[in-house]
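Write out a record, fold above all:
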Amino acid sequence: MIHTVLTTVFDTLFPPAPEVLALRGISTEQFLCYRERHQLDGVIILSRYSEHHIRAAIHAHKFYSDKHARRLLTTLLKTELTTLAVDTYLIPIPLARGRIRERGYNQVSRLLSCCGTQQKIIENLLIRTRETVKQSHLPKKDRQKNMRGAFGYNVCYPPHQFENARLIIVDDVVTTGATLREAVAALRRALPSSATISCLALAH
């Protein structure tokens, strides 16, 4: 009762975003019911972005740093990570500097670090070589051009250490796949041909 009253008062003083409100009362077990693993153009996708609660969780975590949304998405992501070999490298998509300044964090890196996974996360193997327009602000036909050459390989990592390695590039949402294609291309140019590179996204 007291908790309900305090929550009501707090919500009145500091109205939460609609995406945050949409997740109230949603348990991790309920959220996993929205898991719909499938593949699209070689990308493993864990859910449908058109599902209201999936979209709300991604927005609440990305734009409002909501802890409950992070917990829900972490649970969804772990369903896939627990199936991977321990020696798999996880590569979060790097954000442009402007986006990092706006949010203060990379939402994909944060999710991966919260998963407590045994796989090795390398946050800076991929680097941004230039600023880009937000993909969501562009028509689909212009998104590949916008991302062309946007990623590079961090030369601090000797390529030979990835001989026969398996790397998975991780993003939160894939629409046309332009961002992931460019990220894969950047790694393929730098890494040995024996390295396997694949992609994983929370939603499409």
